[in-house]
């Protein structure tokens, strides 16, 4: 199955799952009056909105480069990841606000705990299955939007477990104040996750460099060819654009290196880089080691080779 189709099917499955859970939690929350269950319904609704955004961003990012987007549509996924992170944060703020009002003013309820417990168990199991699938496909395709959607659902797993534990405590202790307290704890966890996703997405949108350990790994590959070529100082640049890793570097060759040999070495370096980043856009500029702006030695018959893939 083509990875683009697989991404779309997975995103569609996430939408279906969130529609089901949002409806179940809203119904049970309304019947029981439980704020923790209603907060979970709000959380699931934000998951649903995020899943819809992910679905359309995956479709858009899969489109090839065109006249208006010569570098492709990968940043649609980064933008979707940022919106999802913002939705998670917004949902957490609403939950904290409502729970705080309930703690201050009091709002006792007679919860139908058995029904609430059953819904939370269903939510936990369904979200574990769907989030695991999202993470798997996100890793295969290097998709930030699918990863963000998976994180969305994984936070739902933990928050649902918290609500489930709280409902069990309320059932056996009768302390209904636990309901808004648990809702606030869940919201804090949700807020942290949203902040993390939004930060990661905005870093990609602003063309933030790959992490230092990944840059060092790229340098290690190039240093393996040090008997034939050198990496020009401060020339290695790498960033993430949606599912694509964009890598630029300049290599210095001895002036006697033939054009064919220069091309072969560039190909070998590319091949090793693609073993790490399968979906990579690699731009290699090569120069003779003796080259400088005032160079009058025109014997460098190999010239400058720019190789873009």
Describe the structure.
The chain is an alpha+beta fold and 309 residues long. It folds into two domains: 3-205, Cation efflux protein transmembrane domain (Alpha-lytic protease prodomain-like, Up-down Bundle), CATH 1.20.1510.10; 212-308, Cation efflux protein, cytoplasmic domain (Alpha-Beta Plaits), CATH 3.30.70. 66% of the residues lie in helices and 10% in strands. It is built from eight helices and five strands, in the order αααααααβββαββ. It has helices at residues 3-32, 35-61, 75-105, 113-141, 144-173, 178-205, 212-223, 259-274; strands at residues 230-231, 237-241, 244-253, 280-288, 305-308. Strands 1, 2, 3, 4 and 5 form a five-stranded mixed β-sheet that branches. Strand 3 (244-253), helix 8 and strand 4 form a beta-alpha-beta unit. The two termini are 24 Å apart.
What is the secondary structure topology, with strand pairs?
Blueprint: H1 3-32, H2 35-61, H3 75-105, H4 113-141, H5 144-173, H6 178-205, H7 212-223, E1 230-231, E2 237-241, E3 244-253, H8 259-274, E4 280-288, E5 305-308
Helix pairs in contact: 1-2, 1-4, 2-3, 2-5, 2-6, 3-5, 3-6, 4-5, 5-6
Structural key phrases:
elongated, Alpha-Beta Plaits, 8 helices, disordered C terminus, alpha+beta, Alpha-lytic protease prodomain-like, 66% helix, 309 residues
